[in-house]
Amino acid sequence: MTYRIDPDVLHEVAVRAVGVPVDSGELITRTIELLAEAYPDLIDTTPGRWVGSKAGGVLGKVRFLYFSPREYIVIFGSPTGTQGFSGRYKHVDIHKFLLAGQIDSYDLESDDTTPLPPLRPGDRTCLERGHARGLTIHPGSWHLEYGRGAVPTTLPFAMVDTLLVSLEFESVRRSTVEFAKLIRRGRRRHG
After folding, report:
1. pLDDT in tens, 13-67
2. pLDDT above 70 covers what percent of the chain?
3. Structural domain boundaries of the chain?
4. CA triple 85-98-45, angle to 5 deg
5. Residue 126 — φ and ψ, nearest 5°?
6. For residue 10, what is the DSSP state?
7. 168 Rama class: left (phi>0) / alpha (psi -120 to 50) / beta
8. SS3 content of the chain, % helix, strand, coil (to 5)
9. What is the rounded distance in angstroms from the CA atom of residue 177 to the CA atom of residue 106?
10. CB 48, CB 159: distance < 8 Å
11. For domain 7-185, is the CATH number 2.60.120.10?
C-alpha cells in the first residue's frame, strides 16, 4: 500500500524546526510552513483552531493539519505537561517527532522495568501497531504526530475520553469540524 507522506521527510521538518521559539507561536508557524513546503497539496496552512484533546488521560492541545482515511498529521502539545496512556492501535502506526520539550515513556508489556530513552527535540519514535506505552509529556513539549494505517480506527480512542469521561462536548464538536474541513479540502484537491 502506498502512502503520500514519508516519515523521514517529517523527521527532517522537525529537525529544521528545533530551536525556533515556542512562546511566541513561531515554532508552530515555522513547522507548518516547512510541512507545506514538503507537501504543498496536503497541508492546510490556513489558520486553524487549537482543539482540546484528552485521550488515555493525556490532556493537551491539538492542531489538525492533514487527515485522510489512511494518514493524518497533527501538532500536539501541552504548555504545562501531562501524562497517561498512549493507546493501543491495532491498525495504525503512530510516529512522533519532537519539536520542543521532552517525552518520557515505557513499554507496558515488556519485562523491562526501565524507561525507554527520552525523546528530545529532533528525536523521533514510532508506536507500532498493537503496542502500548505509558508516557509523560513534560511542560512546554510539542510534537508532530503522524498516523499511518486505518485512521478511522483511532477515532474512538481519540474521542471517548474527551466525550464520556470529561463530558467535553465542545472539543468533540470542534474536532469533528476540523476533520470534516480537512476531508472536504482533500476531496476538492484530489477528487
Report:
1. 999 999 999 988 899 999 999 999 999 989 978 877 788 887 888 889 999 899 8
2. 80
3. 7-185
4. 105
5. -135, 125
6. H
7. beta
8. 30, 30, 35
9. 33
10. no
11. yes
Grid cell for residue 100: 520542543
Cα–Cα distance for residue pair 167/104, rounded to 1 Å: 28
How many Cα atoms within 13 Å fall on the side-chain side of residue 168? 18
pTM: 0.84
DSSP symbol at 117: P
SS3 35: helix
Residue 54 Ramachandran class (φ > 0 left, ψ -120 to 50 alpha, else beta): beta
The model's pLDDT over 144-169, given as tens digits with 9 standing for 90+, comes to 999 999 987 776 655 565 555 555 56
Helix axes 26-38, 7-17, angle to 10 degrees: 150
The count of other CB atoms within 10 Å of the CB of residue 116 is 16
Report the SS3 class of residue 106: strand
d(CA 31, CA 21): 11
